[in-house]
Amino acid sequence: MQNTSTPIATAGRYPRAVLFDLLTALLDSWTVWNAAAGSEQMGRAWRAEYLRLTYGCGAYVPYEELVRQAAATVGLPASAPQSLDDHWDELPAWSGATELLRALQPHCKLAVVTNCSRRLGPRAAERLGIDWDVVVTSEEAGFYKPDPRPYRLALERLDVQPAEAAFVAGSGYDMFGTASVGLRTYWHNRVGLARPEGAPLAEVESPTLDGALPWLRGFRPAAS
What we know:
Layout: E1 12-13, E2 17-20, H1 29-37, H2 40-57, H3 63-73, H4 79-86, H5 97-104, E3 109-114, H6 121-125, E4 134-137, H7 138-141, H8 148-158, E5 165-169, H9 174-181, E6 184-188, E7 204-206, H10 212-217, E8 220-221
Parallel strand pairs: 2-3, 2-5, 3-4, 5-6, 6-7
Antiparallel strand pairs: 1-8
Helix pairs in contact: 1-2, 1-4, 2-3
């Protein structure tokens, strides 16, 4: 049975690196998408179609193109993707996100692995107000998550092995990728997304980030 409770901190050490999904795990991109769409209902439909396209295409197709295609499919005007782009620098962080990152920074390398473009990914990462060690976009990797290549590129740039790192996911699709790479995963399922059919279980699933720090603090056995 999947663990949805807050992990109890045990004696141990942090991972060498923590990798994060950006637009769902750390940032509340849902609010900005909904505003651009004109309603929560249309925003969720648009976002769901975009996610379907993204996780289904594998090799990189321009992020902005997928956003426009998804908007057209659900019946939104061209002004919706433009509004999303115009308000990109207003993406809010989920509660607890910046606090978690600041608590981890003295102990771990921190990285973003995001299904986004080179143009928009780093701008979104800047919303968290920290100095990232690595920011990997799917455009750089040439593939969208959950293909293993974006995760592996981040690990390579960090010079960290999968067993020494953890991943904080925002979508259940990430579990396909993290399982294939060998990354233990905490799923911050803030909006109650259904786990995709066949997706491996996360080690922890929670609607908040509250349990992430205790889980990461006891990630590796304490030195003897």
